[in-house]
Specification:
The structure is a single chain. This protein has four helices and 14 strands. By secondary structure, the chain is α+β, with helices and mostly antiparallel strands. Helix 3 runs antiparallel to helix 4. The chain is globular. The relative contact order is 0.09.
């Protein structure tokens, strides 16, 4: 099989220089499909935001702390306020359908801005440039439950019960908004455990408002093994019961 290596670089139009350390490469199969789907070890990326650079005149980039299929997350600090933040970056050259993905991210941030709960992250800033979309949010210290399970196995029952109480509380909060919000993606990797024992629900890309007048969801979203039957289509729209199913599968 033949492969194609595509390299992207960050270019400063004012100085006409290529910024070193800001390269992004993707290996493509003969069919043209990115091998990201076949194995993340075949895709490499250097930091798009330079470590030590300052975003929007106030957020200093400390290091990269996460990366998904279309975005990268950095740890940053507002030195004047002496507070840590997480910055999610999505770039045009890193997304197949940048505008659609950006609109989805805008909808997610607009939703989170309206919510206030101790088990939900807060959005504090949205920065949009020509080819980059940045979201500044709470930095959540801790690990996702999926990592804890992988490292230590099944957890003590009393701890799991405590996590369940907290997750029921935040789901109850979402379900009592007007209109109700259906989370639709409950799973261990979307639950962060902080050092103080509190859990935080993250990743709101699958959330939808419940209308009560649809025969099924417009778009089927969810994770196999945790998604309720109705999330696969043809069995009615998702409701608050969908999240209860996902919570049960997670626990």
């Amino acid at each position: 099989m033949e492969y194609k290596l595509t390299i992207f670089v960050k270019y400063n139009k004012k100085t006409e220089n290529i910024l070193t350390g800001c390269m992004y490469f993707v290996i493509l199969a003969e069919s043209g499909d990115s091998l990201r789907r076949c194995g993340p070890e075949l895709v490499g990326r250097w930091e798009m935001l330079e470590i030590g650079s300052v975003v929007d005149g106030k957020y200093k980039i400390l290091n990269q702390i996460g990366q998904g299929g279309m975005s990268t997350v950095y740890l940053a600090i507002n030195e004047k306020a002496n507070k840590l933040w997480a910055i999610k970056e999505m770039r045009r050259d890193g997304a197949r359908d940048y505008e659609a993905v950006k609109q989805g991210l805008i909808a997610e941030t607009d939703l989170l801005k309206k919510l206030r709960h101790e088990s939900l992250p807060s959005i504090v800033d949205v920065i949009e440039e020509e080819d980059t979309f940045l979201v500044v949010m709470d930095y959540i210290e801790g690990k996702p439950l999926s990592t804890i399970l992988a490292e230590y196995g099944a957890q003590p029952q009393e701890e799991v019960v405590e996590w369940a109480k907290q997750l029921c509380d935040v789901l109850g909060y979402l379900h009592t908004r007007k209109p109700p919000l259906i989370y639709r993606d409950m799973k261990p990797s979307n639950v962060m455990l902080r050092p103080d024992g509190r859990v935080i629900l993250i990743d709101f890309g699958a959330v939808r408002e419940f209308s009560g007048c649809r025969t099924e969801d417009t778009q089927c979203l969810g994770t196999r093994g945790y998604a309720a039957p109705e999330q696969y289509g043809g069995r009615g729209e998702t409701t608050v019961r969908t999240d209860i199913y996902g919570l049960g599968a997670t626990l």
